[in-house]
């Protein structure tokens, strides 16, 4: 999944990778991709995780994991970092998801359980701020319930913000044409249509890495 | 007013009143003014509203202040962490108020306070539980939520270096909320690793101009933790 997302990120894009599954995308970006990673705690051109003597308490990613800086990196404060998102300067963000609706609504911050402590971080800002939002998630819950749904039942993170959903069974494109299956892995479109309650319109052939910037 | 260089942490937090709203910098431990928080615990102010990205980790810093039952309310973006057990227990017992704010909106509400902006319309959170009860307006075809400034009585921030004018520079991602919080409170206290003479910081590299900074305190413990390499930056 992470390799597929990485292949679909255009060269030179400014990208934010959310905490969790999306973090893995960084390992699949080609060294010469020119992709610039943004971390919302105030840095552009973030490098890989820091190890041993590289660890610096002043240099972490949004998950508070020690990271490194690449040549050409820059630092900025939080208001600037989020202005970068809301202002439409970030090309892509990749987020995890609990549920995505056919209309592109995203739920990824709160299970809605009464004793759960709500914690949103930067998810809502990223969801509505980045020019394109990719979600990475398993297509079904552990009990087999679809996570691509007609309407989200979990509290929302953002309305109509998701452009593409990468799952373990298929990649879906969301937009004016509804939910378009872009590619499948193991599971056929008919079976997908059977197991999902969202209408699937058409089948678009994937051309990884050929997205327009 | 001229920035005062404080001899110790107690002087740096002197005068913080019961019921104060305190902005606390840092993102995780990066930029967290731990010595100032420890001093605030000793100072004794209670019934505080804390504005910070998180609600404390482990048993030190903000978590220790919470454990002392000195905080009435926390305004933050991300209270729940693997080791936020002090906050979690207080919250589940109904002994602390929580206002969750999207991280960018949290920063922008403080920026607005510091910049004299009355309120602003923001697209973040539209259609979510965090926008419930808030005024919304469609601008240029897009829905926005009306957000009000967050002003602090006090800001406690961590920075890398100060000069005697109170000009501050930060280091790497430890900058985070510091520059914004420094603009948004009546009393701004900066914990730094070193203070240099006037002229010791290149004016082109100043991030927080001294006009915002009331008190500076050099934390020796923090200084000791910084590697040789870090000092060279």
From TrEMBL, chain A:
SUPFAM superfamilies in the cross-refs: NagB/RpiA/CoA transferase-like (SSF100950)
Similarity remark: Belongs to the 3-oxoacid CoA-transferase subunit B family.
Keywords for this protein: Transferase
Organism ancestry: Bacteria, Bacillati, Actinomycetota, Actinomycetes, Catenulisporales
Identification of the protein by name: 3-oxoacid CoA-transferase subunit B
Superkingdom of the organism of origin: Bacteria
Pfam families: CoA_trans
Automatic annotation (TrEMBL), chain B:
Pfam families: CoA_trans
Origin superkingdom: Bacteria
UniProt keyword terms in alphabetical order: Transferase
Transferase keyword on record: yes
NCBIfam families cross-referenced by the UniProt entry: pcaI_scoA_fam (TIGR02429)
Protein family: Belongs to the 3-oxoacid CoA-transferase subunit A family.
Name of the protein in question: 3-oxoacid CoA-transferase subunit A
Record organism: Catenulispora pinistramenti
């Amino acid at each position: 999944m992470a390799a597929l997302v990485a292949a679909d990120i255009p060269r030179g894009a400014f990208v934010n990778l959310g905490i969790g599954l999306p973090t893995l995308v960084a390992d699949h970006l080609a060294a010469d991709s020119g992709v610039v990673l943004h971390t919302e705690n105030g840095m552009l051109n973030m490098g890989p995780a820091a190890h041993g003597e590289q660890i610096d308490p002043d240099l972490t990613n949004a998950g508070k994991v020690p990271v490194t800086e690449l040549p050409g990196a820059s630092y900025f404060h939080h208001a600037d970092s989020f202005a970068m998102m809301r202002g439409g300067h970030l090309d892509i963000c990749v987020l995890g998801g609990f549920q995505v609706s056919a209309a592109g609504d995203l739920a990824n911050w709160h299970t809605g359980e009464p004793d759960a402590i709500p914690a949103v971080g930067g998810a809502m800002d990223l969801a509505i701020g980045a020019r394109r939002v990719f979600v990475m998630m398993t297509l079904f819950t552990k009990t087999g319930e679809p996570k691509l749904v007609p309407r989200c039942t979990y509290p929302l993170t953002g309305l109509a913000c998701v452009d593409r959903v990468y799952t373990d069974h298929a990649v879906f494109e969301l937009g004016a044409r509804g939910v378009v299956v872009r590619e499948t892995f193991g599971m056929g479109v008919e079976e997908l249509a059977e197991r999902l309650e969202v209408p699937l319109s058409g089948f678009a052939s994937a051309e990884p890495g050929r997205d327009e910037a | 007013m001229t920035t005062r260089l404080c001899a110790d942490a107690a002087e740096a937090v002197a005068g913080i009143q019961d019921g104060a709203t305190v902005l606390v910098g840092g993102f995780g431990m990066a930029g967290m003014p731990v010595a100032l928080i420890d001093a605030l615990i000793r100072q004794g102010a209670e019934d505080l509203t804390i504005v910070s990205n998180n609600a404390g980790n482990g048993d030190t810093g903000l978590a220790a202040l919470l454990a002392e039952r000195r905080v009435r309310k926390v305004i933050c973006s991300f209270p729940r962490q693997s080791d936020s057990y002090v906050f979690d227990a207080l919250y589940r017992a109904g002994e602390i108020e929580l206002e969750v704010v999207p991280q960018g909106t949290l920063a922008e509400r403080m920026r607005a306070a510091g910049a004299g902006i009355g309120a602003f319309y923001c697209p973040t959170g539209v259609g979510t539980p965090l926008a419930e009860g808030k005024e919304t307006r469609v601008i240029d075809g897009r829905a926005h939520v009306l957000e009000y400034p967050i002003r602090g009585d006090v800001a406690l921030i961590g920075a890398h270096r100060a000069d005697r004018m109170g000009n501050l520079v930060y280091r790497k991602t430890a900058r985070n909320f510091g520059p914004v919080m420094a603009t948004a409170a009546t009393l701004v206290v900066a914990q730094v690793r070193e203070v240099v003479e006037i002229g010791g910081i290149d004016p082109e590299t100043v991030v927080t101009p001294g006009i915002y900074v009331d008190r500076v305190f050099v934390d020796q413990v923090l200084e000791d933790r910084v590697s040789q390499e870090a000092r060279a930056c």
